[in-house]
DNA sequence: CGTAGTATTGAAACGGATCAATATCTGTGG
DNA sequence: CCACAGATATTGATCCGTTTCAATACTACG
């Protein structure tokens, strides 16, 4: 399951890192920096539905998704689940609080991730400001994405939420298929838990989108966006 | 309005910075680091309702709230407002995207903030990994707070959202008054825009809380929590 | 091929949004 | 210091969409 990471890889490559706090142009890591990171990391493969770590377990490493997709979620006391994030290529996960992970992370399909043990990573960041700046930029980007999500979670309409989800998927998975169709790695239930609405509402909302000829399905998880204009309108912040 | 920051200050003091990515104990800045930051910063005072910066204007500086409170919000196309965050002592604000601020920030009452011009701050962070690590920790904490908020925004019940807001205020403003009462700096409308529910729903929810003797009001903005146990139950993630 | 998990569809009820009227607060000028 | 006006907040009635409950259909994996 573990093996040493090969040298050419998207780990911390520029395309995985968005442009920075502000006005700063995007930047690449130096070869040396990338090599340092790679020397710390192992590439780990997870089987579908495999748990990568559990909430409340001690933090041992930080991960960067290399391939496939995963979900980070919490179990609420009511038994409900909230999906905090879907994880795609380049996404960082494994942050914790008081030395414990806060979410449980599970692979959706087959998934490979770089695993960066926490202690040596921290040591490296503490001595290489330039490298750390890349991480900072990444986390700042995460903050913005979460602000956006918070705004969109404030809205009531199920169809708006689903539209927003489809946009996100489209952005994330563009080019997965030649014909413009995208295949979602997660179940309807996962989508519902992510959007904070019920499974039934997701079902009804997607049905309406299909009836309006805004999207089309080929199988349960393969979606084609037919009318991007109207999808954008629905997803727009009310 | 502008004046040079005095030397003793909570700017980036440890108590304003939460414990770090993981397992790392909280740490202080060295005197030298603090001095460096102070040499970059100016302490600025804003009058109630004064706009600190507008969304879409070019990013010039990053701010740390020193005293008072503010709100960061966006105007949606519909004319609605979404309050993205309330800003209290120690909170960092002024992150942007593509060189532009994404939110508008406005002082609620009288407010003072450290203003750190972006360019020199970036240069300093890029050369001092230890200092930057404190910033990273801060931003990571922000990510967690936003994840929490996202979860709570997913819930439907107005009373639950208001309870959660009261908890937040309590945590933020404890010790504002000797008698345990807390005085909120923001209006009902701001609260509604923050929670993503209507003003009317906030009004009705607070009324129910008062009727259940969970909280009490002395004036419109001074709140006493009478029954913390039941408040916690209501605020608990459903 | 069957079974357990996953998804669709329908009917009813609940709760927040909306619209509308009234009340209260805040800050300003007389 | 008071009175007034505009902004802010409360309260009520109705509407609409999502949740909930329940039954049925689908699908994936052994």
List keywords for this structure.
homodimer, 238 residues, alpha+beta, five-stranded antiparallel beta sheet, 7 helices, globular
Word description of this protein:
- The structure is a homodimer of 238-residue chains.
- Chain A is α+β, with helices and mostly antiparallel strands and 238 residues long.
- Chain A has helices at residues 31-40, 118-127, 129-153, 158-173, 188-195, 199-211, 228-235; strands spanning 2-4, 42-46, 51-53, 61-67, 70-75, 81-87, 92-93, 96-97, 100-101, 104-107, 111-117, 181-183, 215-217, 222-225.
- The first copy, chain A, contains 7 helices and 14 strands.
- The first copy, chain A, has a 5-stranded antiparallel β-sheet with strand order 1-2-11-4-7. In chain A, strands 3-10-5-6 form a 4-stranded antiparallel β-sheet.
- In chain A, a hairpin with a 5-residue loop joins strand 5 and strand 6 (81-87).
- Chains A and B meet through strand 6, strand 8, helix 2 and helix 3 of A and strand 6, strand 8, helix 2 and helix 3 of B.
- Chain A binds a DNA duplex (30 and 30 nucleotides) through helix 6.
* Largest interface pair: A-B, 53 and 53 residues
Fraction of residues in β-strands of chain A: 15-25%
Count, helices of chain A: 7
Query: How far apart are the first and last residues' alpha carbons of chain A, in Å?
Result: 46 Å
Structure class of chain A: alpha+beta
Low-confidence stretches of chain A: 4-27
Major sheet description of chain A: 5 strands, antiparallel
| Shape verdict of chain A | globular
| Overall number of strands of chain A | 14
